[in-house]
Design goal:
The structure holds two protein chains of two kinds. Chain A is mostly helical. In chain A, 73% of the residues lie in helices and 4% in strands. In chain A, 51% of the residues are buried. A seven-stranded mixed beta sheet of chain B has the order 7-6-8-9-10-13-14, covered by helices on one side. The longest helix of chain B has 25 residues, at 2-26. Chain B starts with a helix and ends with a strand. Classes of the chains: A mainly alpha, B alpha/beta. Chain A binds chain B through residues 3, 7, 10-11, 14-15, 17-18, 123, 128-130, 132, 134-135, 138-140, 142, 149-152, 154, 156-157, 223, 227-229, 231, 237, 268-270, 272-273, 276-278, 280-281, and chain B through 38-41, 43-44, 174, 200-203, 205-212, 214-215, 217-218, 231, 234-235, 238, 241-244, 259, 262-263, 265.
C-alpha cells in the first residue's frame, strides 16, 4: 500500500515539475491572445533563445571560475530574461505592430515567418549541433522505506517548482495591483475603448510581449539546467505543448494557462506511469480534443462575445 | 583610369579562363556522395562518416586515383530524417552521381535505397544496422557494418552470461533501428531465461524521463537495455543518477559517442555499448591512424573505418571492373575479397558483410571506451 502511494506521489511530483514549465511558457501565449486576440507563433523560439542565453551565462561564469550556485543561477536567469525580453519586444515591433489592424491572418503568417527566422538565425550563429552542459544542481531528497521503493525529489525539481510559483505570484500581483497591469486588463477587455480613455495601447501590447518572453526565458533557463541539452529546434515542441496547455486551460485566461500546464504535465506523467511512455502524447492531445468538444473555450475560458 | 579598367578586364577574363579550365578538370572525377546527418542531434555520427570517407578519397587520390581518374567526395545532409533522406536521394540522382556512401540512420537508408535501386545507384552504408535494409532483394545496397540481428544477440548473450541481472527493462525509441535491436535483445534474453520485466517505447526527441525512471525503480529493474540513439539515453542516464537509480545501462553503437558523456557527465561512466571492433587499435592500421591524427581527427569513432572501407571497396571495384557501370560493380563486389582497414572483407548475396561481429565495450565519463574482459 505504501509503495503504491509513494509511486503515485513520485509521479505527481514529476508531473508537476514538467507541468509548471509548460505553464510558464503558456502564459506568453495566453497573454498575447488575451489582448490582441492572436497567437504568437514565435513564442517557442523565445523560450529556445532563453535556454541558449542561460547556457552561455553559465559557461561564461564557469570560465571565470565562479560556481557559487545562487550567483550562477541569478546571472543565468536575469541575462536570459533580459535578452529574451528584447527578442519579445522585437517580435512585436517587426512581426505584429506594422500589420496591426489589417487582416488577422497576416500577423499570424508573419509570426510563423519570424519563428523560422529565429530558428535558423540561432542555427547559423550557434551551430547546428546540440549543445550540452553538465548538471549544475545535483542530488535530492528521498523518502520512503530504505529497502523498498523510495520517492525522490531532486533539488533541480524543487528549484523549478519554487521559481515557477514565485514567477506566477509576481505576475498575478503585477496584473492585479500595478498601473500597467490595470492597463493590460483594460486593453484586454476593449482595445479601442482603452485607447480612447488615454491608455497607450501600443505600449501595453509591447509590455505583454515582453512579459511573456521573460517568463518563457525563465522556463528556458530552468529546463536548460534540468536537461542540459539544447538545439535550435527545442522551441517547436515546447511551444506546441505550451500552446496546448493554454488552449486546455482556456486561452486568454492567466489562471487557465497555469491550470492547463499542470493538467498537461500530470496527464503525461500519469500516462507514462500507469500505461506506457509511448502513449503520453496521445493521451495529452486526446485530453485536449475531449475538453474542446465539451467546453470549446477551455476549462477556465470565458465565451467570447464579439471580439473576433 | 583606362589602364585600370583594362587591367580589371584582363584579370576578370583570366579568372574566367581559370574557372573554365578548373571545371574541365572536374569533369574527369568520379563523384561519390557522402549522405548522412551533418546537422541535427546525431550529427556526430555524420562527422565520423565524413572524416573516414574523405580520408579514403584523399589517400586514394594521392596514390594516383582509380585507373587515373580522381575521386571526389560530395557531402549531402539528411539530418537523420527519413523524409529528408529521400529528398537527398533524389538530389543525388539529379546530380548524376553513381556512388553513395551512406546513409547513416537505418530509418534514412531504407527509404533512400528505394530511390537508388530504381536509378541503379550503388550504395554502401557504413552504419545502418537494421537487418531489413538488405532483405528486400535489392542488388544495389551493401553495408560495411554488421546487423542488429547479430548485434542484438551479442548484447543479449553478454547480459545473460556475464551480467546475470534479475530484472531487465528493454526500452526503445520506436524507430526502425532502435525498436529493431531492442526486439532482438529481448528475444535473446527470453531464450536465455532472463526476466524482461518491462518492454516499452519512448518518443524520439523526448527529454523528460522522470516518470519512466520512477517506473523502473518501482519494478526493481537492475539492468536497462536501450535501443536508440544517445540524446535520449543521455537524458535517461542523467535523470536516473539524479534520482539515485543505480541500475546498469547498455545500448547499441548508436549511443557510443562522446556526446553521451557531455549530456550525462559522470552518469555515463560504466555504460555498456556494443560497437564495431576498434579497428584503429589494430597494428596494421597505425599508419592510417597517424594520418587522421595529423589532421587532428579522431579515428576511434565507430563509423570512421567503416566509411573509409566503403569508399575503398567502391574504388577497388571501379578499378577491378575498369568501368563505372554499377551493375558490373555490384557483381564484382559480391564475388571478390577486399583488403581494407577492417581486414579482408567480402560480401554475401544480400550485400551484408561475411563474418562481422560486434564487441562489448565499457564507456567512460571522459568519452573513452575500454574492452570488457
Amino acid at each position: 500500500m505504501l509503495e503504491v502511494t509513494l509511486y503515485f506521489l513520485q509521479q505527481l511530483i514529476n508531473g508537476i515539475t514538467i507541468g509548471s514549465t509548460y505553464a510558464l511558457i503558456a502564459i506568453g501565449y495566453t497573454m498575447v491572445y488575451g489582448i490582441i486576440g492572436m497567437i504568437n507563433f514565435a513564442h517557442g523560439e523565445v523560450y529556445m533563445i532563453g535556454t541558449y542565453i542561460a547556457f552561455m551565462a553559465i559557461t561564461g561564469l564557469a570560465m571565470l571560475g565562479i560556481d557559487f550556485l545562487p550567483i550562477v543561477f541569478a546571472v543565468a536567469l536575469i541575462s536570459s530574461m533580459l535578452v529574451s525580453s528584447t527578442f519579445g519586444l522585437a517580435i512585436e515591433r517587426v512581426a505584429y505592430r506594422p500589420l496591426r489592424g489589417g487582416n488577422r491572418l497576416i500577423p499570424l503568417i508573419s509570426a510563423i515567418g519570424m519563428s523560422f527566422f529565429l530558428q535558423n538565425y540561432v542555427r547559423i550563429s550557434q551551430g547546428a549541433r546540440d549543445i550540452a552542459m553538465p548538471s549544475v544542481v545535483t542530488g535530492g531528497w528521498n523518502f520512503g522505506p530504505e529497502d523498498g521503493f523510495q520517492a525522490s525529489v531532486s533539488y533541480m525539481q524543487i528549484i523549478i517548482f519554487v521559481v515557477t510559483v514565485i514567477s506566477m505570484t509576481a505576475l498575478t500581483l503585477f496584473i492585479n495591483r500595478s498601473r500597467l497591469g490595470r492597463a493590460c486588463r483594460a486593453t484586454a477587455q476593449d482595445l479601442k475603448m482603452a485607447g480612447l480613455l488615454g491608455i497607450n495601447t501600443n505600449n501595453v501590447i509591447a509590455a505583454t510581449f515582453v512579459i511573456g518572453a521573460a517568463l518563457a526565458a525563465v522556463a528556458g533557463t530552468l529546463l536548460g539546467m534540468y536537461y542540459g541539452v539544447a538545439n535550435a529546434y527545442i522551441g517547436f515542441i515546447a511551444g506546441l505543448k505550451a500552446f496546448t496547455a493554454a488552449v486546455l486551460g482556456g486561452i486568454g485566461s492567466l489562471p487557465g494557462a497555469m491550470l492547463g500546464g499542470l493538467i498537461l504535465g500530470i496527464a503525461e506523467s500519469m500516462t507514462a506511469a500507469y500505461f506506457s511512455t509511448e502513449y503520453k502524447d496521445v493521451v495529452s492531445f486526446g485530453l485536449l480534443v475531449l475538453i474542446l468538444l465539451f467546453k470549446p473555450t477551455g476549462i477556465l475560458g470565458k465565451p467570447e462575445v464579439e471580439k473576433i | 583610369m583606362k589602364k585600370k579598367v583594362a587591367q580589371k578586364v584582363l584579370g576578370l577574363s583570366a579568372s574566367v579562363l581559370l574557372a573554365g579550365s578548373f571545371s574541365l578538370a572536374n569533369a574527369e572525377t568520379i563523384k561519390i556522395a557522402i549522405a548522412g546527418p551533418q546537422t541535427g542531434d546525431v550529427a556526430q555520427y555524420g562527422d565520423m562518416q565524413v572524416i573516414g570517407a574523405e580520408m579514403a578519397v584523399e589517400q586514394i587520390n594521392a596514390a594516383g586515383g582509380v585507373n587515373g581518374d580522381k575521386l571526389e567526395a560530395i557531402r549531402y545532409d539528411d539530418a537523420c530524417e527519413p523524409k529528408q533522406a529521400v529528398a537527398v536521394a533524389n538530389k543525388i540522382v539529379n546530380d548524376g552521381i553513381k556512388f553513395v556512401v551512406g546513409h547513416l540512420c537505418s530509418g534514412s537508408t531504407q527509404p533512400a535505397s528505394d530511390v537508388y535501386e530504381d536509378e541503379g545507384i550503388l550504395v554502401i552504408t557504413p552504419a545502418s544496422t537494421s537487418p531489413e535494409i538488405t532483405q528486400r532483394g535489392y542488388t544495389m545496397i551493401f553495408r560495411t557494418i554488421g546487423l542488429d540481428s547479430h548485434q542484438g544477440p551479442t548484447a543479449g548473450r553478454f547480459i545473460a552470461e556475464t551480467i546475470k541481472p534479475s530484472n531487465v527493462a528493454v526500452i526503445h525509441d520506436k524507430q526502425q533501428y532502435g525498436e529493431g535491436i531492442a526486439t532482438a535483445v529481448k528475444k535473446t534474453l527470453e531464450e536465455k531465461g532472463v526476466n524482461v520485466a518491462l518492454f516499452e517505447g519512448v518518443n524520439k526527441g523526448d527529454k523528460d524521463f522522470s516518470p519512466l525512471i520512477a517506473k523502473l525503480q518501482k519494478e526493481k529493474i537492475d539492468f536497462v537495455y536501450y535501443g536508440g540513439y544517445h540524446p535520449e539515453l543521455g537524458q535517461m542516464l542523467r535523470q536516473a543518477s539524479e534520482k539515485g537509480f543505480d541500475a546498469k545501462f547498455m545500448g547499441p553503437e548508436g549511443v557510443g559517442n562522446k556526446d553521451i558523456s557531455q549530456i550525462a557527465g559522470e552518469a555515463s561512466e560504466g555504460l555498456l555499448v556494443t560497437l564495431p571492433p576498434a579497428f584503429d587499435q589494430r597494428p596494421e592500421n597505425q599508419d592510417l591512424v597517424k594520418a587522421f591524427k595529423a589532421k587532428s581527427q579522431d579515428p576511434s569513432g565507430a563509423f570512421v573505418m567503416t566509411s573509409y572501407t566503403a569508399v575503398k571497396v567502391i574504388a577497388d571495384a571501379i578499378a577491378g571492373t575498369d568501368s563505372q557501370e554499377t551493375d558490373a560493380i555490384q557483381d564484382y563486389l559480391r564475388s571478390n575479397t577486399f583488403t581494407t582497414p577492417m581486414g579482408k572483407i567480402s560480401f554475401d548475396d544480400k550485400g551484408d558483410l561475411k563474418g562481422f561481429d560486434f564487441e562489448v565495450y565499457t564507456w567512460h565519463a571522459d568519452g573513452s571506451k575500454s574492452t570488457v574482459n
